[in-house]
What does this fold into?
Amino acid sequence: QAQLVESGGGSAQVGGSLRLSCAASAYTFSLDCMAWFRQAPGKERERVAGINSADLTPYTDSVMGRFTISKQASNYTLYLQMDSLKPEDSGMYYCAAGSDWYCPDTPGQYNIWGQGTQVTVSS
It folds into this structure.
């Protein structure tokens, strides 16, 4: 059964940290790529970071050095550690999984999605 459930969103101050979690089913965790996307009001959904079966981790430029994506096979969970948060990091964060090993940045190439978790960063 394909399933993704995000948690860990909330409010943070500028410069603060949040850690998002995404609980997956065994099947979903076995797919070649898992990724975090985010979407702010009025903006397109963008890939924040991905991690593939070889643990390659592409990041979007705006979060490089501040966010870290990781996964834990023992509990089929994907994580996103977000540090040095900025107001522009605010939005709905989604976990996604797909079969493209290179973790594309196009939402349409992922076929399994979670329901999302809201992140709000304020000064």
Summary: The longest strand covers residues 91-98. Residues 10 and 76 are 22 Å apart (CA to CA). The chain has a mean pLDDT of 96. The chain has one helix and ten strands.
